[in-house]
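Slide 14.
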Amino acid sequence: QQQFVESGGGLVQPGGSLRLSCTASGFTAGYYGIGWFRQAPGKEHEGVACISATGSATYYGDSVKDRFTISRDNAKNTVFLQMNNLKPEDTAVYYCQTDRPTPGLRVTSVETMCNAPNQYEHWGQGTQVTVSS
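Slide 15: predicted structure.
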Protein backbone atom coordinates (compact mmCIF):
# COMPACT_ATOMS: atom_id res chain seq x y z
CA GLN A 1 0.00 0.00 0.00
CA GLN A 2 1.36 3.37 -1.01
CA GLN A 3 1.28 5.93 1.73
CA PHE A 4 3.20 8.69 3.44
CA VAL A 5 4.23 8.74 7.07
CA GLU A 6 4.38 12.33 8.27
CA SER A 7 6.25 13.11 11.48
CA GLY A 8 8.01 15.86 13.39
CA GLY A 9 5.04 17.91 14.49
CA GLY A 10 4.49 19.18 18.00
CA LEU A 11 3.89 22.17 20.22
CA VAL A 12 6.23 25.12 19.73
CA GLN A 13 6.25 28.72 20.85
CA PRO A 14 5.88 31.57 18.36
CA GLY A 15 9.21 32.26 16.72
CA GLY A 16 10.33 28.68 17.16
CA SER A 17 11.26 26.05 14.60
CA LEU A 18 10.24 22.54 13.63
CA ARG A 19 11.41 20.12 10.97
CA LEU A 20 8.77 17.88 9.48
CA SER A 21 9.54 14.63 7.69
CA CYS A 22 7.45 12.82 5.13
CA THR A 23 8.60 9.29 4.36
CA ALA A 24 7.11 7.31 1.51
CA SER A 25 6.08 3.75 2.18
CA GLY A 26 5.37 1.24 -0.56
CA PHE A 27 6.69 3.34 -3.43
CA THR A 28 9.76 5.26 -4.59
CA ALA A 29 9.29 8.91 -3.74
CA GLY A 30 12.02 9.97 -6.16
CA TYR A 31 9.70 9.39 -9.11
CA TYR A 32 7.23 12.00 -7.85
CA GLY A 33 6.90 15.65 -7.14
CA ILE A 34 5.88 15.99 -3.50
CA GLY A 35 3.92 18.67 -1.74
CA TRP A 36 3.31 19.67 1.84
CA PHE A 37 -0.23 20.80 2.55
CA ARG A 38 -1.95 21.84 5.74
CA GLN A 39 -5.42 22.16 7.16
CA ALA A 40 -6.19 24.48 10.02
CA PRO A 41 -9.30 23.94 12.14
CA GLY A 42 -12.40 24.99 10.23
CA LYS A 43 -10.47 25.79 7.06
CA GLU A 44 -9.82 24.19 3.69
CA HIS A 45 -6.59 22.43 2.81
CA GLU A 46 -3.82 24.83 1.78
CA GLY A 47 -0.69 24.22 -0.26
CA VAL A 48 2.40 25.06 1.79
CA ALA A 49 5.43 24.01 -0.28
CA CYS A 50 6.00 21.73 -3.24
CA ILE A 51 9.13 20.23 -4.75
CA SER A 52 9.80 18.50 -8.06
CA ALA A 53 10.98 14.89 -8.29
CA THR A 54 14.62 15.91 -8.74
CA GLY A 55 14.44 18.80 -6.30
CA SER A 56 15.31 21.31 -8.99
CA ALA A 57 12.04 23.23 -8.66
CA THR A 58 10.26 24.43 -5.55
CA TYR A 59 7.22 26.55 -4.84
CA TYR A 60 6.03 28.16 -1.61
CA GLY A 61 2.70 29.54 -0.55
CA ASP A 62 2.75 33.27 0.11
CA SER A 63 2.13 32.85 3.83
CA VAL A 64 5.28 30.75 4.35
CA LYS A 65 7.77 32.28 1.92
CA ASP A 66 11.12 33.12 3.50
CA ARG A 67 10.22 31.10 6.61
CA PHE A 68 9.79 27.53 5.36
CA THR A 69 12.16 25.43 3.25
CA ILE A 70 11.25 22.22 1.47
CA SER A 71 13.93 19.68 0.59
CA ARG A 72 14.19 16.02 -0.22
CA ASP A 73 16.55 13.08 0.19
CA ASN A 74 15.54 10.51 -2.41
CA ALA A 75 18.00 8.00 -1.01
CA LYS A 76 15.96 8.07 2.20
CA ASN A 77 12.62 8.24 0.37
CA THR A 78 11.88 11.33 2.44
CA VAL A 79 10.83 14.94 1.94
CA PHE A 80 11.45 17.52 4.65
CA LEU A 81 9.86 20.82 5.64
CA GLN A 82 12.02 23.11 7.74
CA MET A 83 9.77 25.64 9.43
CA ASN A 84 11.32 28.69 11.06
CA ASN A 85 9.84 31.74 12.76
CA LEU A 86 6.60 29.89 13.35
CA LYS A 87 3.44 31.87 13.92
CA PRO A 88 0.16 30.92 15.61
CA GLU A 89 -1.51 30.96 12.18
CA ASP A 90 0.77 28.08 11.15
CA THR A 91 -1.16 25.84 13.53
CA ALA A 92 -2.60 23.02 11.44
CA VAL A 93 -2.31 19.38 10.53
CA TYR A 94 0.38 18.99 7.88
CA TYR A 95 0.13 16.38 5.13
CA CYS A 96 2.15 15.14 2.16
CA GLN A 97 0.85 14.35 -1.29
CA THR A 98 2.41 13.26 -4.59
CA ASP A 99 2.01 15.02 -7.93
CA ARG A 100 -0.58 12.43 -8.94
CA PRO A 101 -3.85 13.44 -7.27
CA THR A 102 -5.80 10.82 -9.20
CA PRO A 103 -4.77 7.71 -11.19
CA GLY A 104 -3.60 8.74 -14.62
CA LEU A 105 -3.21 12.42 -13.77
CA ARG A 106 0.22 13.92 -13.15
CA VAL A 107 0.61 17.57 -12.23
CA THR A 108 3.91 18.65 -13.77
CA SER A 109 4.08 22.16 -12.28
CA VAL A 110 4.96 22.51 -8.59
CA GLU A 111 3.06 25.81 -8.53
CA THR A 112 -0.08 24.17 -9.91
CA MET A 113 0.31 21.30 -7.49
CA CYS A 114 0.50 23.58 -4.48
CA ASN A 115 -2.36 25.82 -5.58
CA ALA A 116 -4.90 23.06 -6.18
CA PRO A 117 -5.27 21.02 -2.98
CA ASN A 118 -8.89 20.34 -3.93
CA GLN A 119 -7.56 17.86 -6.52
CA TYR A 120 -6.84 15.40 -3.73
CA GLU A 121 -9.63 13.21 -2.46
CA HIS A 122 -7.72 11.22 0.13
CA TRP A 123 -5.56 12.53 2.94
CA GLY A 124 -3.34 10.59 5.32
CA GLN A 125 -3.01 11.05 9.06
CA GLY A 126 -0.70 14.01 8.85
CA THR A 127 1.25 15.51 11.72
CA GLN A 128 -0.11 18.16 14.06
CA VAL A 129 1.75 21.45 14.44
CA THR A 130 0.61 23.77 17.20
CA VAL A 131 2.18 27.20 17.64
CA SER A 132 1.22 28.73 20.94
CA SER A 133 2.73 30.46 23.92
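Speaker note: The chain is about 5% helix and 40% strand.
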